[in-house]
Amino acid sequence: MSRFFRRFMPWWWDLVAEGRRDRPKSIDKLRAKGARMANFIQYPDLADCKEYTQVTFNRLSTMAKFRSQHLPGSPSPPLGGLGELIDLWLQPTVPDLRSWRLTFRDNDGRYTGRTGQHVMIIDYVTRPANHPTTPHVGAVFNALYQHTEGSLDSLRHVYLAYVVNQQTHKLLKTYGRGIHLFVHGSPDYEAILGTRTGCMVASIILGGFPRGTRRITQIAGNDRTGEGYWDMRFDIEAI
């Protein structure tokens, strides 16, 4: 049937296809996936949790080109909407940060971000799908944080600047403009954790800490334009 409409009524098929692309994944499915990820993080006895293989910075340096720059802290850092999230819930000034860029040599994978005491800021990620030599996103960021800050145990906040992942955006744009805060266990928290962006942050926790020792206590977001492109913050605490 779809072949008929594509061939003889392409205008109608374009409308249907566009509607499908704009429709977010079932909110119930996102909530179920987010709740499952939260439980995997918090309860070590739950079965069927994916194993996230870690990688050392030394290993990364053989696979990719690494550049880093020190950024002194200041009361008014150039962080855009992230600055509002930091000012509201972290502290009045930003700790000294180190910006970095990691570019893989054999593919188009590129990671840029900043790290400081207790803080990981993810600015940009591009990773070829199913590339056999590229480590998991969470493993890359864990290795970079440990390289710049010495120990992953100090990590308390993961920020993401201007999230553009399509699946995540379709959900986030339903909340409207402004600052949003969702606590652990709430339906909205679980839905966001179930998106690709939420699962990426969950993989940082699952791969970097023994299960049952940490949890993501709340998720905050700032939509400055009302278009659904959030600056986000995930707060982590020891259990």
Walk me through what this model shows:
With 239 residues, the protein is an alpha+beta fold. It has one domain (25-238). Helix content is 38%, strand content 25%. It has nine helices and eight strands. The protein has helices at residues 2-8, 10-22, 27-42, 57-63, 81-89, 137-149, 166-172, 187-193, 196-208; strands spanning 64-71, 97-104, 110-116, 119-126, 157-160, 178-183, 214-223, 231-238. Strands 1-2-3-4-5-8-7-6 form an eight-stranded mixed sheet. Helix 6 packs across helix 9. The longest helix is centred in the first third of the chain and has 16 residues, at 27-42. Residues 4-23, 74-79 and 88-93 have low confidence and may be disordered.
Short recap of the structure:
With 239 residues, the protein is an alpha+beta fold. The protein has helices spanning 2-8, 10-22, 27-42, 57-63, 81-89, 137-149, 166-172, 187-193, 196-208, and strands at residues 64-71, 97-104, 110-116, 119-126, 157-160, 178-183, 214-223, 231-238. It has nine helices and eight strands.
Descriptive key words:
8-stranded mixed sheet; 239 residues; alpha+beta
Low-confidence stretches: 4-23, 74-79, 88-93
State Rg.
Answer: 19 Å
The N- to C-terminal Cα distance equals: 54 Å
Structurally, the number of domains stands at 1
Query: How big a fraction of the residues is strand?
Result: 15-25%
The quaternary structure here is single chain
Query: What kind of sheet is the major sheet?
Result: 8 strands, mixed
Q: Can you give the helix content as a percent range?
A: 25-40%
Q: What is the count of helical runs? A: 9
